[in-house]
Amino acid sequence: MRIGSYDVLGELGRGGMGVVYRVRAPDGRELALKLLLKVDRGTFARFERERRLLASLGEKEGFVGLLDSGSSAEGAWLLMPLAPGGTLRKKLEAGPLGVEETVALGLQLATALGAAHARGIVHRDVKPENVLFTGGPGAGRALLADLGLARHFDRLAPGGSQSMSLTAHGMVKGTAGYMAPEQLEDPRSVGPPCDVFALGLVLHECLAGRPAYQGDSLLEVFARVRSGVREPHGRRDVPAWLETTLEKALAADPRSRFPDGASLARALGARRPGPRARAPLLLGTALGALILAASLIVSSRSPTPAPARVEPAPPPAAPRPPVATERLPGGLLLAGRNVPAADGREVPLYSFRLPDGSEIEMVRVPGGDFVMGADDGDAYDEEKPRHVRRMDHGFWIGRKDVTWGQYLAFCAATGRREPSRPDWWNQVPGTKLDHPVVRVSWDDAKAYGEWAGLALPGEAEWEKAARGTDGRKWPWGNEWDPGSRCNFADASCPLDSLDAGGKSLAKAFGELGWEWDREHRDGHAFTSPVGSFPRGVSPSGALDMAGNVSQWCEDWYDARAYERLAQGDEAPASSGRARVNRGGNWSNPARGCRSSIRSGLPPGTSTTDIGFRVSLGSP
Q: DSSP letter at 237?
């Protein structure tokens, strides 16, 4: 089947007015085409209104935008980008979201609604089915879709006079369980507060895992909405400020709610959890996917006074040279030379042969106790408490991050899709093949490891490789040394020209209480070739464990993991919504480059500042 110049590949969804197909464009792109099936004067007028509104609200504003439109023998159609991450409804089938992820999602959607409201447009059908994600399943930036019920609430707004009179008096327009009380009475007269109400219900559902208003019939649902009696979310971890924000958004009287999406966004943004190493990603910047909406990496807790200091584990003895009888895992060989490590030491270098015949450098991390976590004034709650961690096994870890060259060789060998290049790709001189690969998800990193016969390091393994046994703050020690130890957010990084949800990243830094070092220059605006900062080497001999790119780890992210570990529960989380990523990156300040900083993102997320390195266990 062919509609216009687009080949139909399959059906994505069907409703009362039309059907949405997955189609292939002449240039090979896969897109979404919405075909109008029901043809009458009123339906066609609403379809035409949706076309006009889609043309004025695109991805920049937080909506699934319009690429093309037309008519054919099959009917009128609209062409839009295909959002590969699916819907929020599908994501919620797996259960409730975390508080941090809910707040980040709410901020994105409220900002998008604010852009529409500023143009005099009210959506009128905000619900989980109309929230799509740009990344992997349930990941990436969240976009609002389906403007089929949207209309202008301001006749003076551009196009307003053409769309204000299409809803007949007495007709209910919206979705049961997400409509504000005034929308039930007269959908023609509603304004931005009805969208605020609907988004409040969506966020409530994200926390509860079920709709706030349920019933056996539409009349019962409508009655519950009018009564204002909602199903409680039942969560103990929801902070008081968020409860207050949702109560205001869900006020029965529209005059008591936030007046528009922008006001709700300001409330969510002003009281978002404290900054974390990944915070810039959740601001909707060009630095990465926003899972930002779907993100779990911003801490909801702030630093607290440090308890009694844990005595650090004793520093390791000088490494003994491996002897010929040492048993090594298959594929691993001694390289025959030593390489520098922190504190003026040297460690043996190993080489692991990859399936394509190339080799990857590795260094040995011996077993034994080490200090994990932090309690100082820079520490966030998920890094606490500082404690001694037992590690009964030794292992090997990649000396450097996996590069573009290495990852593209894996793609060529396996047919796996290559990562998309960052927006700033052409601003970085040289081939970039020796830069750490980015725009790779945890799933991508895991697949590379399986192909190579290697693995991703566990979180405890990564931290020990980064800071050794003595609990040092950065891989090289406890004193920050800007410009010569790692690639971080300094004067070389163009924070003032990078977008962070409609404002510069530099401004976002200030709002988060982070410091942009404008005095020092490390010489790299974005990523740098791996190993460019040998003075930042760790005690194990690993390079770039601070700055350049953050790195995926094997473990599921658990914000309270260190509390459990300190109490003797060493079992890693068996499931979750996010995978751990560790270490700072080129867009982080000193505080975000500490060896104890912890973050987590959904495994399908790929950003411009997260890569990975590999590890290998003992035989």
A: S
For the ranges 181-185, 204-208, 284-288, which has the lowest average pLDDT? 284-288
d(CA 146, CA 400): 45
Report CA-CA distances (Å) from 574 to 21, 556, 558, 571.
Answer: 37, 7, 10, 8
- Catalytic residue selected from 7, 40, 68, 125: 125
Could you tell me the two tokens for 38?
């029901």
Query: Which amino acid does the sequence have at 346?
Result: E
Nearest residue to 498 via CA among 280, 176, 310, 306: 280
Neighbours of 331 (CB within 10 A): 16
Burial of 215 (0-12, 13-18, 19+ CB in 10 A): middle
Q: Which residues contact 118 (CB under 8 A, 6 or more apart)?
A: 260, 262
Give every CB contact of residue 151 below 8 A, 6+ residues apart in sequence: 49, 121, 122, 124, 163, 164, 166, 167
CA dist 424 and 31 (Å) reads 25
Measuring CA to CA, which residue among 485, 464, 479 is closest to residue 596?
464
Q: What is the pTM of this model?
A: 0.53
* HEC per residue, 471-482: CCCECCECCCCC
Confidence of residue 294 (pLDDT cuts 50, 70, 90): very low
The span from the first CA to the last CA of the chain, in angstroms, equals: 56
CA atoms of 456 and 450, how far apart (whole Å) = 9
Vertex 131: Cα angle to 190 and 298 (nearest 5) = 110
Could you tell me the sign of the dihedral formed by the alpha carbons of 120, 121, 124, 130, in that order?
Answer: negative
Q: How many CA atoms lie within 13 A of 507 on its CB side?
A: 10
Domains and CATH numbers, the chain: 2-81 (3.30.200.20), 88-157+173-272 (1.10.510.10), 332-617 (3.90.1580.10)
- Using alpha carbons, select from 106, 123, 127, 124 the residue that is nearest to residue 115: 123
- Cβ atoms of residues 351 and 360 within 8 Å: yes
CA distance 84 to 79: 15
Q: Is 125 a catalytic residue?
A: yes
Instruction: Tell me if 470 sits within 8 A of 312, measured CB to CB.
Output: yes
Give the integer Cα–Cα distance in Å for 528 and 542.
16
Tokens of 80: 């839009």
| Neighbour count for residue 94 (Cβ, 10 Å) | 11
Tokens of 461: 């393994």
The SS3 of residue 526 is coil
Per residue in 24-74, pLDDT tens? 998 899 998 988 876 555 556 666 766 676 666 778 888 887 787 777 778
Grouping H, G, I as helix, E, B as strand and the rest as coil, residue 454 is coil
Beta bridge pairs of residue 436 = 403
Extended beta strands in 147-270, E state: 151-152
Instruction: Give burial (CB, 10 Å; 0-12/13-18/19+) of 306.
Output: middle
The owner of tokens 């450097």 is: 400
**Are the C-beta atoms of residues 543 and 536 closer than 8 Å to each other?**
yes
Q: Which of 305, 355, 361, 307 is nearest to 335 (CA)?
A: 361
C-alpha radius of gyration, the chain, whole number: 26
Q: Which two tokens stand for residue 333?
A: 């060989």
Half-sphere exposure of 211 (CA within 13 A, CB side): 16
Residues in the chain: 619
Classify 250 as helix, strand or coil: coil
State the residue for tokens 């393994």.
461
